[in-house]
Amino acid sequence: MTRFFTALALCLATTPLHAADLEVGITSAIGQVEVPGTFTIIQRNQDTEAQIEGEFARTSRACPPFCIQPMTPAEGVTTIGELELLDMLQDPEAVVVDSRVADWYRRGTIPGTINIPYTQIVDHLGELGCEIDFDGWDCENAKPVALFCNGSWCGQSPAAIRQMVGAGFPADRIFYYRGGMQAWQMLGLTVTGGS
Fold it and tell me: Looking at residue 15, what is its pLDDT?
């Protein structure tokens, strides 16, 4: 019953809690993060006995197609971790893209993200600050964009990144969250949607 009231208090909190207010913080100084423009708070699961279950508990998948991805999917792209992704989620200029196909996206995603499947990324560069021109895309005003998929064994976001760079999106404005949903859930961070 105590866990229920703790969870209820966290849901009703109007200001993000500091790490000292929680048993499990994001860092020693950050307890939770609010995603601007939403009513969503990202924090770690407060149950210190929690474990990953289901699809993301699997450690091995057939390769191909589920081969371990390189740390950097294209030259000039920056690979980031959870703290950098949280910063991007709070940056009004940045866009965080769940590049998984719709079926995976519907199973649950990182709060504050948009879904652009890797198979359609070039068709959506306008949403990322590029403008269509006679030769394809003009990405001079491209936004900082972070992409992720299921984890370090998932090729969906690396494929999307390579397509973006090939279409003229500046590699230095692309950020790759290689850990993806598996690492996000391993750390007990908030997931929205899904069943």
Answer: 57
* Residue-wise pLDDT tens digits, 155-174: 999 999 999 999 999 999 99
Distance CA 133, CA 136 (A): 5
Question: From the CB of residue 17, how many other CB atoms can be counted at a distance below 10 Å?
Answer: 16
For 164-186, letters b (16+ CB in 10 Å) and e give bbeebbbbebbbbbbbbbbbbbe
CA–CA separation, 108 and 87 (whole Å)? 20
Q: Note the pTM of the prediction, 2 decimals.
A: 0.89
- Yes or no: say if 29 and 17 are a contact pair by the CB < 8 Å rule: no
In Å, what is the CA distance from 165 to each residue of 12, 32, 61, 122, 171? 42, 33, 28, 10, 6
Count CA atoms within 13 Å of residue 119 on its CB side: 3
Distances (CA, A) of 137 to 124, 129, 163, 168, 193: 11, 10, 12, 7, 32
pLDDT in tens, 95-116: 999 999 999 999 999 999 999 9
Min mean pLDDT across 5-14, 58-67, 147-156 is at: 5-14
Question: Residue 16: pLDDT band by 50, 70, 90 thresholds?
Answer: low
State the number of CA atoms in the 13 A half-sphere of 95 facing the CB. 18
Q: Buried (b) or exposed (e) across 124-145, using 16+ Cβ within 10 A?
A: ebeebbbeeeeeebebeebbbb
